[in-house]
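G., the chain you wanted modeled:
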Amino acid sequence: MEPVRVAHCMAGLSHGGYESLVMSLYRCIDRERLQFDFISSFSGVYEEEIEALGGRIHRIPFITQKGPFVYTRQLDRVLAEHPEYTIVHSHMDKFSGLVMARAKKAGVPVRIAHSHNTQNEGGLAFQLVKDHYGRMVLPNATHLFACSEAAARWMFGEKAGEARILKNGVDPEKFRTALCQRRAVREELHIAPDAPVFGHVGRFTPQKNHRYLLDIFAAVHAFDKSAVLLLIGTGPLLEEMQKKAEALGLEGCVKFLGARQDIPRLLAGMDGFLFPSLHEGLPVTLVEAQASGLPILASTAITPEVCVTDLVQQIKLSDPPEAWAKAALTAAKSRTGRRECPEEALRRAGYDIHDTAQKLQDFYLELAAHSRRLKP
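Predicted structure as tokens:
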């Protein structure tokens, strides 16, 4: 019997927050009963793995590349050519409104809009376009998902209470077993065994606030010249941040590692995690950092739902970089020599990816059993 195939609509397949979540879920499902396919615009590190797991990738131009009419036409084509998709799950925030409308027109019976954020990105014109499509979500989606209560309120408004909260889970075992890699990671990156190492995982976009992150680390470095900062990710602001690091005289101690798939190993090599984001839905990277037993300094803009251990300390973005730096160094020293994965705390809070994947799989299969493709 052929597995149920779910079409996931995503902007790209890079190592971002929601992309990592979908891939973690994909690895955990029973792929003989359920398969993930992807309708995506931008390439990324996950393509080879998706194909190895049996998934298909449909590439169509993004709305900002060739406009909404070309995107719509190509999306219509994919849905028309693949009537086996009785479930379309969109992860494109307010752009999901367009996806939901076209899926409804194509007769797809199950249409899931998933909110992963709490605020629009981009300039005013871009935000107005997103808000336009955002108004199409509720009339066309059959099910609402969100990574947090705040993300549900932002995208679904008065219907936020109807959204299913799907926790951004991780596999605790991977982080527990990676802790023994601390020395190997430091040797690989040419970092002294006793140097204080801080890190961040995230795309180089305005939301992640790398500019202020570098100011914080400059203050850390002023207190301790042996300190090192590991920045993991890619994005449109990468080159600008590299230049800023050079301007601050930090080029020798800030390491830009690019897109990596060995996040548990790299976290094991750190002593602290810095996360001064301007806004987030529910950042899976903070769940990962907690799974690695790292002390974390995060902005108060982060939803408290993600703070499930005593490892997270939240600080105002209005506080000076020196305040962040002192807190970061103090927290890192307080945890020296006693790192462990808080598996039970993560599991109780609903952040074990195996539990999340099982619930989502059951949800998909139950819906698929009672759904058939309708004629447009």
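The first strand starts at residue 4 and ends at 12.

Shout if anything looks off.
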